[in-house]
Amino acid sequence: xxxxxxxxxxxxxxxxxxxxxxxxxxxxxxxxxxxxxxxxxxxxxxxxxxxxxxxxxxxxxxxxxxxxxxxxxxxxxxxxxxxxxxxxxxxxxxxxxxxxxxxxxxxxxxxxxxxxxxxxxxxxxxxxxxxxxxxxxxxxxxxxxxxxxxxxxxxxxxxxxxxxxxxxxxxxxxxxxxxxxxxxxxxxxxxxxxxxxxxxxxxxxxxxxxxxxxxxxxxxxxxxxxxxxxxxxxxxxxxxxxxxxxxxxxxxxxxxxxxxxxxxxxxxxxxxxxxxxxxxxxxxxxxxxxxxxxxxxxxxxxxxxxxxxxxxxxxxxxxxxxxxxxxxxxxxxxxxxxxxxxxxxxxxxxxxxxxxxxxxxxxxxxxxxxxxxxxxxxxxxxxxxxxxxxxxxxxxxxxxxxxxxxxxxxxxxxxxxxxxxxxxxxxxxxxxxxxxxxxxxxxxxxxxxxxxxxxxxxxxxxxxxxxxxxxxxxxxxxxxx
Length: 481
Ligand code: SAM
Ligand code: SF4
Fold this sequence. Notes:
Layout: H1 29-38, H2 44-55, H3 62-70, H4 74-92, E1 95-105, H5 131-144, E2 148-153, H6 161-173, E3 184-188, H7 194-201, E4 208-209, H8 217-223, H9 232-236, H10 238-244, E5 250-253, H11 261-279, E6 285-287, H12 298-301, H13 309-322, E7 327-330, H14 336-345, E8 349-351, H15 378-388, E9 392-394, H16 398-401, H17 406-414, H18 418-436, H19 440-455, H20 459-473
Parallel strand pairs: 1-2, 1-8, 1-9, 2-3, 3-4, 4-5, 5-6, 6-7, 7-8
Helix pairs in contact: 1-11, 2-4, 3-11, 3-13, 4-13, 6-7, 13-14, 15-19, 18-19, 18-20
The structure holds S-adenosylmethionine and iron/sulfur cluster (SF4).
């Protein structure tokens, strides 16, 4: 590596998870409502004090988050957005990591009343990709320039840990070593027992992602009608078990629309604190799905607690302040304009050119999980990022492959070292994308952005990165710090 750092060497094989009682619901509904009730109509000064603390990148307590959530003064909200932008710039710079979801199987034994894959949706054609179909999907994503996949599976005996591991191995092997291969596979699948999580870890996954959907137990039990997912506590402790199994990179989320958004945000941050307390590491990422219309689901057509765009922006901004070092993920579910705004407020990863059907990258969508808000191609998303958000689309997978995961990754972030790795790697992988996949228009716009970014660097750092860009131009691939 061009930058040597003692923290870069591999990460712990095991994570010390404290004794915990998986029969206890650590989400205390009354405590959350008290926080909200006790902080109604906060005055401007109280809100500004919270913003001042957040500016110092120290994160926020639940009480401070409640103050921000209860603020009704629009002028102070503008200050909130400005602080979120400042934190995003200080920690993440202007890079945006891109990924694509790959739906491997829509077989599902659960009946989640918001999801098109529900076992009660008898109209849905069911499919698990065969090995050949999986390879074809990965090749299509590789041809688009993707380097990161989020593999998605319904909860079904067919999609057991062994089958998931086999599919991940297949995906990693497509064009392996030939340049252009997928370099990181994150997984979104049902929670498992610790032993199965150990098996999952052997597939060299990136992040294990699983959303609680709703942290409000009564709501949770009302919308999950069938199958193992009905068990609220089994899902609530999924990340504890994943950590016990040595998976130190986990992603959590709420499906907004099921219950009160203020409650859900405070409860999700309670989950973050519980993981930090019991496992010593918080989540690597937080995702922000909102319910989208799904075939066969009347609930998804009329979600009980609609979160409008303005509220959604506030939720993302407040989360950026509360957990400044946690990556925030926006899916393709949001339309292009809103995504643009959310990027500036702190989102650090987005999906691009996505399909939500098994086999969807090689056929028309007829069995999608839900409909998408953004239909643009990868090249259009990249061009939009460059032109309108002045962001560097990043295809970097360096941290995970250098062992900068879990507590190491967060430790690095806390010391603001991300700029040392992420920014250079973003430029190098973006250059690779421009050379190999971009349209002429995107390539020109991208080259101009890279030149402008290089101008901002110190001479030594610039020399290092330019050397990597020259190697990339000469045909070398997969260079990263
Ligand atoms: N079956 C696994 C599970 O439920 O955790 C993983 C796959 S599931 C398709 C992934 C996520 O999709 C769920 O956690 C849920 O938040 C999201 N989802 C389901 N229905 C949705 C809808 N109508 N709109 C937006 N997101 C939805
Ligand atoms: Fe199945 Fe997951 Fe959809 Fe629920 S959200 S029906 S578990 S795929």
